[in-house]
Amino acid sequence: MDKLHAMRVFVRVVEVNSFTKAADTLGLPRASVTTTIQNLEAALGVRLLQRTTRKLSLTLDGAAYLEGATRILSDLEEIETSFTSARKTPRGRLRVDMPGSVGRLIIIPTIHEFHARYPDIEIMIGMSDRPIDLIQEGVDCVLRVGDLVDSSLIARRVGAFRPVTVASPAYLARHGTPKTIEELEGHSAVNYFTRTGKMHEMSFERDGVIHEVKLNGPVSVNDADAYVTCALEGLGIGQTARFMALPHLRSGALVEILKEWRPALMPISALYPHNRHLSPKVRAFVDWVAELFEGCPLMQGEEIDGYECPDREKPKPAPATTEPEGARLCVV
């Protein structure tokens, strides 16, 4: 029996509290995970997990083994990384998650550059505005917008953007154009809500003071693209990232209002679990994103109306025979 493999399987089962989820994230058949745990318990001569149809729980022996196995695997990863990261290209499957707007408009159009630089990384990109549990869902790294609240993750700020307050010409023709935040009273907003149902209030900054304004509205959404669409349809005033609003501001489909009352800056951070802080593939992705955002003025909080990112080299088609083995892009 491969004891290191058994340790990894056992730790993963405990992390996600499920044989099936562990199998999915490890890329193994469920039967193989079950057999590995059974063989490990037989070799140790103790029961590590109490299994019922509803849940898994650690025995006292299992808790002790988990502590030791986690420490051994962490030490082993650190030792291996110290020898390999400096001389080997990062490789393996990398699962990342990010807001749909950032992924669709910024990351996906330039992901070919990451692929060209790190051809041995198979990257799986999830795009959603919902918060996820990195450990439970087997995700290596996430990009998140706004202030951070989860202290169990390592965070690195990679960029920022300043939202813009907008409305459609049709809405402003019906309701008038507010000149101050006091004149927002009586106006409608497109509201954005979180998974818990909490509404995000509009935020304005002037002379270093932040003012939050709550407006009622006919519709609330929890998706950034839907939010912009509702503003385009004249359902109310909205605050969205300038990189999302820019094409509509250029075309006149949206109008910027309250220019003297700027929305507060929104940081963009990369987050990853403590046990993956030395992973070359995670480091490679975070460094690449930071470099990408550094070249985009709008992703550094600058307020410009020109093209937000410098022209980047388009991918050149290559013969199928030249693509490295295992180099794939998977968008989920």
From TrEMBL:
<keyword id="KW-0804">Transcription</keyword>
<dbReference type="GO" id="GO:0006351">
    <property type="term" value="P:DNA-templated transcription"/>
</dbReference>
<feature type="domain" description="HTH lysR-type">
    <location>
        <begin position="1"/>
        <end position="59"/>
    </location>
</feature>
<dbReference type="InterPro" id="IPR036388">
    <property type="entry name" value="WH-like_DNA-bd_sf"/>
</dbReference>
<keyword id="KW-0805">Transcription regulation</keyword>
<keyword id="KW-0614">Plasmid</keyword>
<dbReference type="InterPro" id="IPR036390">
    <property type="entry name" value="WH_DNA-bd_sf"/>
</dbReference>
<dbReference type="GO" id="GO:0003700">
    <property type="term" value="F:DNA-binding transcription factor activity"/>
</dbReference>
<comment type="similarity">
    <text>Belongs to the LysR transcriptional regulatory family.</text>
</comment>
<dbReference type="InterPro" id="IPR058163">
    <property type="entry name" value="LysR-type_TF_proteobact-type"/>
</dbReference>
<dbReference type="InterPro" id="IPR000847">
    <property type="entry name" value="LysR_HTH_N"/>
</dbReference>
<dbReference type="Pfam" id="PF00126">
    <property type="entry name" value="HTH_1"/>
</dbReference>
<protein>
    <submittedName>
        <fullName>Transcriptional regulator, LysR family</fullName>
    </submittedName>
</protein>
<dbReference type="GO" id="GO:0043565">
    <property type="term" value="F:sequence-specific DNA binding"/>
</dbReference>
<dbReference type="InterPro" id="IPR005119">
    <property type="entry name" value="LysR_subst-bd"/>
</dbReference>
<dbReference type="Pfam" id="PF03466">
    <property type="entry name" value="LysR_substrate"/>
</dbReference>
<keyword id="KW-0238">DNA-binding</keyword>
